[in-house]
């Protein structure tokens, strides 16, 4: 294989190493082109480029896309719940979705540690070609995808991380559409630049979704190395209640308020409503139908943090209960979870 000619665009291949496909098996007859575009565009804070996305949907009834993550310790709800919400939207829009479990990347990033060995003769020449076409300074600008700044001292292996992630887009044959967090924007722009270098016409379309913050003031992204800042998929009810009770949630302030972000990006997409239970003296019970309505009440003071936190905890616990039941009732799952909990998670 010529490394400057990435794998051709094809439909998802269930045998692709390190990935799991979410196949599209529904009739799209009742979903208009604009509805499909709106579903996909609604995932992202930023889309590069919207006209390319519309053109893709017009020409390919079942576009292939992907999302991925490092298996770095326990899974928090940004990975487990927000990713589920986004994948469901992609499937509803008619996409065939690949999930990439990036364990080689986790090893490079000093965490746990893609079953890329079966096609190593394709993968590593592609990684090397991307590396050859970029200088170290350009690659270092992408290092935030590892949760690290370009001022940190990185190992030589870690510098390869952006080249490998860039290669994944072509190696997985995902076509032109992929959803990623805003923290991975730079490496996906790198992939578009690589397409220019090799004169590839169809560049990946980037959908950069919002990053859920941590619960502490000023935490732009939840951190696994700080368990109190994030809710994990198997957290029990008491842990969820305590974390949300202690969360930063200033009265009347919406900007930078993690509790309101959880409501916006998890509760409303999941339940399509937000239910607050309170005494009549405090305004009585209220069900919010949309985020704008909730924000108006919160900014005015009609909705207080003491109203928001118990309601948020109740909603999150309701979502997580089936996961808890699985780990409590399945002996194999329980053993795996206990094994993962023993790993030391780094930043």
From TrEMBL:
GO molecular function: ATP binding; tyrosine-tRNA ligase activity
GO cellular component: cytoplasm
Any Gene Ontology biological process: tyrosyl-tRNA aminoacylation
Signal peptide range: none
EC number(s) given by UniProt: 6.1.1.1
InterPro entries, sorted: aa-tRNA-synth_Ic, Tyr-tRNA-ligase_arc/euk-type, Tyr-tRNA_synthase
Class in the EC hierarchy, top level: ligase
Region Disordered, annotated ranges: 1-23
Catalysed reaction equations from the record: tRNA(Tyr) + L-tyrosine + ATP = L-tyrosyl-tRNA(Tyr) + AMP + diphosphate + H(+)
Keyword annotations: Aminoacyl-tRNA synthetase, ATP-binding, Ligase, Nucleotide-binding, Protein biosynthesis
Isomerase recorded as keyword: no
Keyword DNA-binding: no
Pfam families given in the database record: tRNA-synt_1b
Family: Belongs to the class-I aminoacyl-tRNA synthetase family.
NCBIfam families reported for this sequence: PRK08560.1
Record-given protein name: tyrosine--tRNA ligase
Organism: Zizania palustris
């Amino acid at each position: 294989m010529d490394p400057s000619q990435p794998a051709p665009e094809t439909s998802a291949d269930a045998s692709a190493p390190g990935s799991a496909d979410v196949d599209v098996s529904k009739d799209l007859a009742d979903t208009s082109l604009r509805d499909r575009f709106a579903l996909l565009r609604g995932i992202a804070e930023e889309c590069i480029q919207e006209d390319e996305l519309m053109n893709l949907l017009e020409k390919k009834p079942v576009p292939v896309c992907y999302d991925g993550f490092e298996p770095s310790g326990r899974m928090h709800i940004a990975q487990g719940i927000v990713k589920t919400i986004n994948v469901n939207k992609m499937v509803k829009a008619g996409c065939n979705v690949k999930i990439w479990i990036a364990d080689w990347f986790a090893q490079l990033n000093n965490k746990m540690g893609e079953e890329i060995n079966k096609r190593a003769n394709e993968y590593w020449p592609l990684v090397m070609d991307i590396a050859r076409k970029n200088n170290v300074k350009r690659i270092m600008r992408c290092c935030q995808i590892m949760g690290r700044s370009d001022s940190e001292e990185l190992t030589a292996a870690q510098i390869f991380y952006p080249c490998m992630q860039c290669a994944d887009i072509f190696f997985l044959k995902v076509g032109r559409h992929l959803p990623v967090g805003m923290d991975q924007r730079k490496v996906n722009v790198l992939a578009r630049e690589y397409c220019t270098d090799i004169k590839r016409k169809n560049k990946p379309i980037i959908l950069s979704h919002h990053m859920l913050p941590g619960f502490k003031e000023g935490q732009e992204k939840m951190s696994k190395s700080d368990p109190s800042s994030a809710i994990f998929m198997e957290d029990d009810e008491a842990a969820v209640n305590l974390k949300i009770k202690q969360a930063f949630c200033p009265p009347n302030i919406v900007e930078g308020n993690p509790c309101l972000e959880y409501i916006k990006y998890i509760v409303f997409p999941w339940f399509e409503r937000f239910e607050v239970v309170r005494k009549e003296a405090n305004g009585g019970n209220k069900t919010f139908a949309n985020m704008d309505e909730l924000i108006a009440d919160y900014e005015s003071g009609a909705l207080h943090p003491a109203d928001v936190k118990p309601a948020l905890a109740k909603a999150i616990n309701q979502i997580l209960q089936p996961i808890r039941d699985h780990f409590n009732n399945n002996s194999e799952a329980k053993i795996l979870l206990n094994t993962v909990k023993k790993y030391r998670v780094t930043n």
